[in-house]
Automatic annotation (TrEMBL):
Biological source species: Flavobacterium ginsengiterrae
Gene3D superfamilies: 3.40.630.30
SUPFAM superfamilies: Acyl-CoA N-acyltransferases (Nat)
Residue span, N-acetyltransferase domain: 11-151
Superkingdom in the source lineage: Bacteria
Record InterPro entries: Acyl_CoA_acyltransferase (IPR016181), GNAT_dom (IPR000182)
UniProt name for this protein: GNAT family N-acetyltransferase
Lineage: Bacteria, Pseudomonadati, Bacteroidota, Flavobacteriia, Flavobacteriales
Pfam families reported in the protein's UniProt record: Acetyltransf_1 (PF00583)
Xref: PROSITE patterns: GNAT
Amino acid sequence: MKISIVVTQEEHFKFAQEICDTIESSALLRGTGIAKRTPEYIQKKMSNGDAMIALADGKFAGFCYIESWEHGKFVAHSGLIVHPDYRSLGLAKKIKSKVFDYSLKRYPDAKIFGITTGLAVMKINSDLGYKPVPFSELTTDPSFWAGCKTCTNFPILQSKENKMCLCTGMLYDPKEKQKTPPRHPFNEAVLSRLKKIKQALFLNKIIAFFV
């Protein structure tokens, strides 16, 4: 089976609905919050050349798109997804790596960041040189945070004035000299424990609010 990862074009519009459905069903399966996407929004990213798609014999296998904020000062990779039929092949890491390299060429001066609750995505980001950071180091663009409105955890983000949530913020600064291996090696046990502590803290506050 040959899988190719390419920059999207209008010919890939036909996969937009399937991409949205796969992203949403994956989030529901994991029980995590997610910012919902529409086929129209995905198609816009495709036509602008701000997305990459993985194809296996002409079938949708994976996807990821790029968003820029504050006039290109910050760049984020969103919607990273692999179709269930092509998981456990290391495809997510390949897509992310391709999008990462593409972003460095397309937005050479931008800081690349992301927020996620997924340990697998954290591991991929860490391998690429991202480091965990507080939300204060990420974009302050209201339109970025508005994209979290459809996430089930949005009330938590609002209550913390966009400064904290169940997601972990991660940042890659191209101006910061990188080392191999990355300066900030991934520690799954530590990040998993941090995630559980966050969940417990927020849950206790919600319970206290209603008591």
